Amino acid sequence: MIQHPPKDARDHINRRATERTVHKNLRRIEYDAAHGRPGLRQFSSHLRQVVWPHNFKLKKLKKYDSKENPENWITLYEIAVRSAAGDEHVMANYFSVVLDQAGHQWLLGLPEDSFDSWEELR
Questions:
Q1: Does residue 113 contact residue 42 with C-beta atoms inside 8 Å?
Q2: DSSP annotation of 15
Q3: Domain range holding 59?
C-alpha cells in the first residue's frame, strides 16, 4: 500500500488563494472587454493594464504641491512605489492620486493617449 504524506494546511490555503486570484483576474478581463479599460484616458490602453500589488498603499508620501523640486519629489515617489511592490504601470496609474488639484487638472486636460509609459509621464 502506498502511503501519502499528510496534507499540509498551507498547501490548501495557497491553492485557494491562487484560485481566487485567477477568478478575480478573469472577472477583470471580462469587465474590461465589455466596458474598456479603467483609468485615465490620457494613458494608453497598454499603460492602463495595471496589476495592483496586494494591499498596495503608500505611506508618508505627501502630495506634490508644485512648491517642491519636481525631480526630487518624483525620485521619492518612485522609491515609495517600489517599496510597496509597485512597477512602472502602478507608478503611472497612481500618479494622479498624489498630485494636488492643480496637477490633477493639468493631467486631465491633456489629450487622450498622451502617455504610453511611466518614462513619458515622468
A1: yes
A2: H
A3: 40-121
> For 79-115, what is the HEC assignment?
HHHHHCCCCHHHHHHHHHHHECHHHHHHHHCCCCCCE
Task: Name the pTM for this structure.
Answer: 0.70
Pull the grid cell for residue 3.
502511503
d(CA 34, CA 32): 5
Tell me the per-residue pLDDT of 69-88, one tens digit each, with 9 for 90 and over: 999 999 999 999 999 999 99
In a domain, 27, yes or no: no
Indicate the number of domains in the chain.
1
- Is residue 54, in this structure, part of any structural domain at all? yes
With beta carbons less than 8 A apart as the criterion, state whether 96 and 104 touch.
yes
